[in-house]
Specification:
The chain is mainly α. Helix content is 58%, strand content 6%. It has helices at residues 22-38, 42-65; strands spanning 6-7, 14-15.
Length: 71
């Protein structure tokens, strides 16, 4: 299955929506990648790092568009 996917009572559909805002999800995936790396699972670590990279870009774009909030 998909790591982190949650099963809900929705028939055959998976509820894969993420909970939290972009900075929280960035930290979540960084921590999951660290944990996987420490456990010796390089493939899963890379999987989580790719998600972390996505949220890093989302946060960076938001900060670029809203510099007044980060001075």
């Amino acid at each position: 299955g998909i790591p982190g996917a949650q099963r809900r009572d929705m028939g055959n559909r998976l509820d894969t929506r993420q909970r939290g805002n972009a900075p929280q999800l960035l930290e979540k995936y960084r921590q999951l990648a660290r944990d996987a790396s420490q456990a010796g699972d390089r493939v899963t670590a890379e999987y989580y790092l790719q998600h972390a990279d996505h949220y890093y870009r989302v946060v960076a774009e938001f900060r670029e568009r809203n510099p007044e909030q980060y001075q």
